[in-house]
Task: structure prediction
Amino acid sequence: MSEKREHDLHFVLRYSDELHGHDTIVEHRKILEKRGYVWMGKFGLGIAQTLVEKVNTQIESGSASYVYLSAYSKIKYRARVMRVVGGGVSARLACPEKGASPKYYASTPCSVWFKLSSISDSSQADVKNLRLYNSPGLAPAFTSMRGLVYVTESSSGSRPMHREKKRTKKNQHADILLEEFDW
Result:
């Protein structure tokens, strides 16, 4: 059995402007400017309810949580999370607040929703300090990355080990299960 994790939980979320034919960040920033927050959804596999509870408790206790937004194998933005809504790995949920997300979400439910209070450009230091949540000694590999990766931030400045593993459909599924349920 794994030991209990005490480090903060953050996320790397892959997005694509090609999926719905809109500039994802511009669309989310428009709503963010009007409301002071915006909901960003994730399509596909969801998130374990235990992680939703953990991150919301973390936020409520005053610790920050971020979604690092990645496109084309590069982290481009860092968004501050106010709340996470998810109903398990196979959940399909409408936006928690009507009008608080881009219109293209209306036709396709998401598995996870992130309520964001800011979206800013990410820095090299942000990316350099990311580690896998369940294996804090390893840096995430951003090539062939799945849609949502659980990460933590390292402030130690130590060099991470990089996981060099051939990605196959079988071991990608195993990694998803490990990230979802390996506590």
About this structure: The longest strand covers residues 74-86. Residues 10-181 form a domain with the ph1033 like fold fold (CATH 3.10.590). The chain is about 25% helix and 30% strand. The longest helix spans residues 169-181.
